[in-house]
Amino acid sequence: MEWETSDLLAKVLAGNDTAQRQGAADVCAQGLLNTGDELVLACVRRFVTVFGATSADLARGAAADARHIGRLLVRAYVQATSPARRSEILDLLDRLLLLGSYGVAEAVNGSGRR
Description:
Elements: H1 2-14, H2 18-29, H3 37-51, H4 61-79, H5 83-99, H6 104-111
Helix pairs in contact: 1-3, 2-3, 2-4, 3-4, 3-5, 4-5, 4-6
């Protein structure tokens, strides 16, 4: 089942349908993916590509997703075992921070308090 879910989500992420991409972002943002780092990172990369600066606009739904994605990336960073994977996660966090994505700074700042 895990492979089927991963395969389906990967196809949706690569597609052009906005509703499907939003659904994929929602799945990722809710932290429902336990299929491995690579799929989570693919989802976040696609979110940044599709929504970009929109993730900072509180009038848009992408802002709420960005908040959850920030938390998901911080969790992925803590769980990452390789320096290359941690570097990739930090790069994504940096991109979201530079975009001003809602809630990402709080996710990063709050990570040291646990």
